[in-house]
Amino acid sequence: MRRSPLVRFALLALLASPAAALAQTPPAPTPVPFPEALQRAANDLFSKAQLEGARVELVIDPLIDGISGAQSTSTRSMQQTLIELVGKSYPRFQAQPFSTEVLARNPAVLVGTFTAVNNAGDAGGARDAYRICLTLLDLKSKRVVSKGVARAKPEGVDVTPTTYYRDAPIWSKDPSTEAYIKTCQGTKLGDPIDPLYAERLNIAALINDGILEYEARHFREALAFYRTARALPGGDQHRVRIGAYLATSRLGRKDDAVEAFGDLVDSGLTGNQLMVKLLFQPGSTQFIANPQVTEPYPMWLSQIATRAKQKGACLEIVGHTSRTGLPQVNERLSVLRAQYVMDLLQAGAPDSRGRMLATGRGYNENLIGTGKDDASDALDRRVEFKVIGC
Question: Which residues of 268-296 are buried (b: 16+ CB within 10 A; e: fewer)?
């Protein structure tokens, strides 16, 4: 039956309405158990890889959290699972160490992120799933040659940071880490490899060597890798500064450790982003009762006050909390924590009064967002220092 022009117009208007658009929105992905999600993403990645040659060397640039850039117990286990899967099911790929020697042969490089998300896409909602993103790069063609994605249920996921990232005193956005995340999450099949990521691959391999040596308690060797990386073009990176501070601290070189931490502070203040992991007791304005963790806090705060004064900088001290508890309680708690830190800074530098402001964000700017109140979400209980106008 033919419809009149008026009826056809009404039908088109209905289809174009917000309600119709909403009805056509694809449903949220269904999370599956963590091992199954990783298997699904990995099979997609390896089975669909568009690469030439019967044998392909493969290196894995260690998988990271897609927000914090940290490695965790889960990302490490994912990497080991991927290596085992390649050996069992994809003999075309020959897994090799992530080293400068192998990189010189232009292998395929696997990068991956593991990110806590709200599965329905609500930016302010609870993070009730994990998004797995795997991307395969061909250094010969300098192109993205395969992708694999999946959603995982949170059960069985352990995002406790590995030793280096747990011990790191601060967090800050790092261009190299951002390039890694962009390479994984912001590319599609056939895209060119991000130039910054490609340029710094050799440095990333040296940093990885340093991290592994540090976690094996080989602190001299770790420091040597960090110093080698720092001396190369593009080696002036956040992870290198952190590694130098951690290694010198463990070696008992107090003066070198103070200077290394001061270098971190200078870099953060210059970039207007210095986030320090000052850990508080849950629901309290007091630092956690662990002297091994809090022992360097006075030095950290002294360096922040001193370096800010040298730069003539005024600071906004911003407190943050993890997701546990009521929003209004956390907002007040975050302000009180910032005030506590400001009082400590001013006690050591009385002439800084009037050059600091304490504010709080509650849990509105969580990086991890799981609300576990343990080592896994320590970054959510950070204190941030921002340079503001005096």
Answer: bbeeebbbbbbebeeeebebeeeeebeeb
